Amino acid sequence: PMPAPRITVVGTGYLGATHAICMAIMGFEVLGADIDPNKIELLRDGRVPFFEPGLPEKLGQALASGRLRFTTDFDEVAHFGDVHFLCVGTPQAAGSGAADLGYVEAAFTTLAARIARRALLVGKSTVPIGTAARLTRMIREISPIGSELELAWNPEFLREGFAVQDTLHPDRLVFGVESEWAESQLRAVYAPILGTGTPLIVADLATSELVKVAANSFLATKISFINAMAEVCEATGADVSLLAQALSLDDRIGRRFLQPGLGFGGGCLPKDIRAFRHRAEELGVGQAVSFLGEVDAINNRRRVRTVDLIRELAGGNLAGVRVAALGAAFKPNSDDVRDAPALDVARLLYLEGAVVTVYDPEANANAHRLYPDLNYAGSMAEAVAQADVVALLTEWEEFRQADPDYLAGLVRQRLIVDGRHALDASDYTSKGWEYRALGHPYQARTVPLLEDARDSAAGDPA
Ligand code: UDX
Predict the structure, then answer these.
(1) Quick check: keyword Endoplasmic reticulum in the entry (predicted)?
(2) What are the tens digits of pLDDT across the range 247-256?
(3) What spacing in Å lies between the alpha carbon of 442 and ligand 1's midpoint?
């Protein structure tokens, strides 16, 4: 039998660190690499440079097994690996929706120039369609071994907060390959996962790139769909929570990603749909995905409308109003504040003169780095002390479990905006709180009668 391939993972951010650790846990010899010596130092020390439940324990196990090492030396990487996974970031380019491919190109060319024996470069980053084909041409020109160096694409679908589980037990694997040899190498690397019956799709490079952005576009669309329905609820006094519940009982629709509220954020969904639109325009099929512009706009409106709701509850003016902002991360069980709806709301409140105190169980440090002008509290109790309005912006378990009576004893006024539909509204109202949530029927403005609509149309001079 073929000896197990030796694996390298280039880029030890969220995706790469998790992948390297899990591959070592699965029994492979793994070398992780990064250009950032600080990250490498931390990982060698057994410390994960970001918050991810369960990952520190797995890193400890992997290091103890002797199968996982880390380096900043790319000659060593080139020499060591049979299969090289490239897991570097593709951030949104400054001033446009396009993806910045600088890190990806640097990683591929750095390795291609150094690899001197047959090997497979596997891209895992989320990239615009056509990137893998372009990288193939690039590495062919650089590589001293020519076509002995091959390229494949293998998109990653892991969610923050569930990174270990999603990596070891994915819903599916997708291989974008151009040769049987590339496919056989990937099959060898994923043998432990394929062995448990995980579905595999073997595709061309373009399809494998598209799967990732299509999946994220679908998820973003689902969230914006229910949030668009929340807007309609706000105009009619209907209840978006009940609506979501009723819709989700149709199993063609399904219950997941139908949670209304502040909308999506993070390092993937927002930037991926923008980059996809940008790439589709370049490909001449912009019209096919122009709806993603609406998906983005609906999502951004949630932030503005949440601020409107807080202002309304505060009596129409935010100047000097003390707001306790509960949550900063883009979702619970994460310390990631990239494009976080919660922090965006906090920032907008601050710009209107509110005195904002943020508390997040894990993301305070990252939030502080981004917005040093906001106040940060070390606990929920400290954040809500003497608050005029409490705003729940990220649905951490700690906030969902909070006792309305306990909070009532700390605040100046019992006013709460539930930006995530995460609290029991009747529990709060029965304990004397004014509870507000977007798309929740408290706002029950009277639905305009058909006659009214006709009257105003008749009175319209046009
Ligand atoms: C996402 C994809 O789920 C994952 O497959 C892909 O690989 C990377 O992008 P992640 O960014 O970790 O993962 O977050 P996810 O759990 O998908 O949540 C995204 C955002 O949507 C969060 O801000 C969350 O609060 C929001 N969301 C999610 C809703 O507002 N409503 C929902 O019903 C679900």
Answers:
(1) no
(2) 999 999 999 9
(3) 28
